[in-house]
Design a protein that fits this description.
Elements: H1 6-13, E1 17-26, H2 30-42, E2 48-61, E3 64-77
Antiparallel strand pairs: 1-3, 2-3
Length: 80
């Protein structure tokens, strides 16, 4: 049986991530705000793997909700 190179076996299971913060917005819902942020980020970032919503907030105009905002951390793989 051939010996596995430690570097080869490690590279398949070990990942390094870069984390950024995004604010997604929507006129309709927090869910849409999250989806919009992920969709926009995926157009310019490769290897998006996860997100974590850290805060919900919104804007009010004329006594009504005018915008939903979802603040989130997004992680993407650092390519080797």
């Amino acid at each position: 049986m051939a010996k596995k190179d430690k570097k080869d076996s490690k590279s398949s299971s070990v990942r390094t991530y870069k984390m950024i913060e995004l604010v997604g917005t929507s006129k309709n819902s927090y869910e849409d705000a999250i989806k919009n942020a992920v969709a926009d980020a995926s157009q310019t970032l490769e290897g998006l793997d996860w997100f974590q919503v850290t805060e919900f907030r919104g804007a009010i105009s004329d006594g009504k909700i005018s915008e939903f905002q979802a603040i989130m951390k997004v992680g993407f793989r650092v390519l080797r």
